Amino acid sequence: MSLKDRRLADLRARIAEVTAADALALQRKGALLVDVREDEETATGSPAGALRLPRGFLELRIEEKAPDPARPVLLMCAGGTRSLFAAEDLLRLGYEDVRSVAGGFSAWKAAGLPVEVPPQLDAAQRERYRRHLTMPEVGEAGQHRLLRSRVALIGAGGLGSPIALYLAAAGVGRLTLIDDDRVERSNLQRQILHAESRLGQRKVESGRAALLDLNPTIEVVSHDTRLEAANVLDLLAGHDVVVDGSDNLPTRYLVNDACLRLGVPNVYGAIFRFEGQVSVFGGAAPGLRPCYRCLFPEPPPAEYAPSCAEAGVLGVLPGVIGTIMAAETIKLLLGLGEPLAGRLLLYDGLRGEFNEIAVPVDPDCPSCSAGARPELSDIAAVCAG
Amino acid sequence: MTTAEVTIRVPTPLRGFVGGRDQVTVPGATVREALAALTAGQDAFRDRLFTAEGELRRFVNVYLGRDDVRRLGGLEAALPAGATLTLMVALAGG
User: Fold this and answer.
1) Threshold 0.90, pTM exceeds
2) How far lies A281's CA from each of A21, A217, A241, B1, B44, in Å?
3) Which of A82, A235, A239, B5 could form a disulfide with A77, with the two C-beta atoms 3.0–4.6 Å apart?
4) Structural domains in chain B?
5) What is the rounded distance in angstroms from the CA atom of residue A147 to the CA atom of residue A132?
6) Could you give the ipTM of this predicted complex?
7) Residue A187 counted as domain residue
């Protein structure tokens, strides 16, 4: 008897084994089924709902997926041998109920049990997103989620620049840029999406070129148009998140109201000189998250707004606020952490201070209270910063 | 007994009314008193914050700590010693 066979006989005497059919029943009752084969092996098929964790990383990563050592774990390999070795390792690690699936994936398939083909990242994608893939909070499943995501970005200007660049870099699969301006030299002090070499181009085209240069594997849809009540629903529908980097209050109210209609979260940011605001509005069940009108029910009349010509902004300020907006967007797409909702983050660049104020849901909100159906309208242009 | 001092944070669009300062300290035992002290002698500033009836305009928010004073009793809300009020208006820039 070879050393290996002697060892396997010893393991079989000590490690519980289950049939593929029993494994499926246990999985449905809450056991964690782990496919410990290598990525090349699972690429063509793996049990539906299984955690795919190659044996080489098993002890290192299992706790991220199974923090409760009392949860039953079922290990599967190709034929039921490697899973025996792996089971012993997990028992030694401290898992209390670890079993090996007899016959492995071959038996699973032969029994006609549910199989899925996991989406695959190619070698270039693996390299590009390596720093995401090594983080358990993103990982391969999260990266696929980003790649399947669609984000609409209103404004390809100051805020839009860092937002678009970071979302493209992160691998958000489809970015829709909406802006009706051309690139001017005075934009380049802060709008890092554009460049001297693209002066005069439509911003959405200049932005598209920059984003595809950074990440040619994503899709960038450009709409060289101004958002209006008549087109807003068509332009924003079908997106997972809308990011408002617009530069005027009428658009902000319109985006808010359209997002409520569509049930899509709206990542909001606004800047003026050394000051910025960020929050996440809507996109949850009614009454759970406030909207922009819960914070500011109506815009100020034009006579109370400073003239647009006086407006200035420190070039880096949209970078500070826009990157927070990009982070909130990615959190929403991945369902990570706590969204910046129900509160408004205020940045005071001169003092180097962040402060937060509460933004509760307004039960009488004209847009998002029960029964309200926000009217989409093009309110008169006002310029308040 | 002297009235407590209140710190009022002023947002960028309103700093022209307070000599460009980002915060101002005024006396006041209630939100109304503090804002009256802040806008004293400046009709344009007062009109910016209040309606003719003396109510806070809908596009101006005032926070005591992190809470909107409208939820704390409005302009008559009492201010503890050393309170910080934050005035806020919408910013549009992007």
Assistant:
1) no
2) 46, 30, 11, 45, 32
3) A82
4) 5-89 (3.10.20.30)
5) 12
6) 0.92
7) yes
